[in-house]
Amino acid sequence: MAKEPQELKWIEDLLPEDDYRRKSMFGGFAYYLGEKMILVLFEKGDKNWNGCMFPVEKEFQDQARARFPELKPHLILPKWLYLPIATEGFDDIVSEVIPRVIRRNSFWGSIPKPKSKKKDVKKSVKEDKTYEKIDTRRPRLFSDEPAEEKLKTAKKISDLKNLGSVTEKQFAKVGITTAAQFIKLGWKKTMVKLVAANPKHRHSIYAYALIGALQNVEFNRISDSEKQEAREFVRSLPVPKKKKKK
């Protein structure tokens, strides 16, 4: 059975909250929107099984790689485009790919072939309903509400853009339980608290998400100067020392 993602866990926060499902696959995890597989994460340590895989049909791979040349067909599973975690700028690349992957009618993703006809009839009916539900709702991530209005009305952390129920629990662990508390602290002080509590929060994408939340914009739509500031700030944060076992 695959172990819970650790270093790549933050990527789940980029997916539509409550709309995706996850299942174990080859020692990693595959992520689905409806019946379409959109992402596979592996953390095996091996260079060929440590990073993100994006299922893309062969006819669309050139188009995907024209925009993201860092993606390469996997050596063993060439139908999937692979991005090793060791790739320079890994966090930024993933943060740009995911919004494209989750778009309606995107060429990213692949629908697995059914294993048997009888099972497929029941399964397709169930999954078609799920997929229909995803396509007909407007994700909270793409709200156009002005930042000032959004910040005024937000009560919970999960009311803010980019921040879901998982992030809300992470905030609660460091004593930030309301949107007002987060807004008052600002993203930098919040990052300091989060990283001190859990070193896994020490990455630039997390900072992008916090900045975007305070502006009511998607994390990857903050300005280049803000992204640069976030990267420099994250690098300046000390890495918390692991507690020694007694």
Describe the fold and architecture.
This protein has 246 residues and is an alpha+beta fold. The chain folds into two domains: 9-101, Aspartate Aminotransferase, domain 1; 144-236, DNA polymerase, domain 1, CATH 1.10.150. Helices cover 41% and strands 13% of the residues. The chain has eight helices and six strands. It has helices at residues 58-67, 90-101, 117-135, 147-153, 165-173, 179-197, 204-215, 224-236, and strands spanning 20-25, 28-33, 36-43, 50-55, 72-73, 80-84. The protein has a six-stranded antiparallel β-sheet with strand order 1-2-3-4-6-5. Helix 7 packs across helix 8 (224-236). The longest helix has 19 residues, at 117-135. It is globular and about 50 Å long.
Runs in which pLDDT lies below 50 for 5 or more consecutive residues are 124-144
Number of domains: 2
Mean pLDDT across residues: 81
Regarding quaternary structure, what we see is: single chain
Quote the distance from N terminus to C terminus.
Answer: 30 Å
Structural class: alpha+beta
* CATH fold naming of the largest domain: Aspartate Aminotransferase, domain 1
Sum up the overall morphology in one term: globular
